[in-house]
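Hi team, as promised in this morning's meeting, here are the two structures we talked about. I've kept the exact order from the run log so nobody has to guess. The first one is mostly here for context; it's the second one we should focus on when we meet again. Sequence first, then the predicted structure tokens.
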Amino acid sequence: MLLTLDLLGIFVFAVAGGLVAVRKELDLVGVLALAAVTALGGGLMRDVLIGDVPPPGLEDWRYLSVPLGAGLLVFFFHPALGRLERLIRQIDAGGLGLFAVAGALKASDYDLGPMPAAILGVVTAVGGGVLRDVLVRDVPAILRRGELYAIPALAGAGVAVVGAEAGLADAVVAGPAAAVTIIWRLLTIHRGWTAPMPRTRD
């Protein structure tokens, strides 16, 4: 189940990364590189932190072939994908939910406590996007003013951890937990919800 979640999240994030590269007018190498970094960056951080080394993202050919395939798909067929800006954010919301859950469940499998496991779910979800944004010289989404990005990821990861601690199977927990993050993030995009900001003096 974790492998399926990982590969699906990798594909979704790779498409999002590839679309950002197209928007930035990068060449084929740039599209593939940004797709791979976006897709694998968070998972590699998680695996190093929990001691799963060498990381599966570097050992298993599927973890490398999926983002490269997604990058090629975006490179050749991006005109058919429609309005890039809106699509990028929606696809990114899907990847955010899938990776938050996969990261949290894998951390739970390594006997980490609920809070560290949930935090590593967030790291898995946002790490690749942070690297992507830094490479193209954008402010990472997690740091943008008022952006509700990490909070939905933490909510989904928290639901996954609670389910795992209750002894529920990953297959039972994964869908509802990912849906929490994805729906919250999509509502944030469409309704303009923002994170709380510090009050300033008048």
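And here is the second protein, the one for discussion:
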Amino acid sequence: MRQIVLLRGVNLGPRNRIAMPDLRKLLTNAGLGDVRTYLQSGNVVASSDLSPEQLARECKRHIAEEFALDLEVIVRTRDELAEVVERDPLGRVAVNPKRYQVSLLSAEPDPEVVSALAALAVAPEQFVAIGREFYAWHPHGIARSRLWARLAGRELGVSATARNWSTVTSLLEMADS
């Protein structure tokens, strides 16, 4: 089964550095098939018969053992990622895919967390929560966005990692090829 493995906070600045060839080798040696990476920020497409939850745990363990890094790992199957793309609740307004972010969560967040996040979206920003994904449109960028600061924080009550729309759709294309 094709799966997408997303590492949180890899190769952003001087911390949590992992060379993608080393990550591919590690995951191949761990039993994943057809391991491919996208960009330098911990995006992996591979084949595995493990459930997404099991695969996330195994990748986290292998990365900790090999690279001495304690990273959050989020996994979606190819079909789950296709659903994320098909939903595209902000596609009509999100005209710049680099400023359209999808946060992929390890579990559904508490409804109170979702309400608090929605209240932080200041027009023309927009925010939609659907299941284990948050869709956020930041037309003026993320630098001064209070919403983005909370989406990128650890107060969500669940593990999360975000990718822009270009990356999400590229990962789906990779999973299909």
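Starting points for discussion:
Residues 8 and 175 are 19 Å apart (CA to CA).
The domain at 2-79 is CATH 3.30.70.1280 (Alpha-Beta Plaits).
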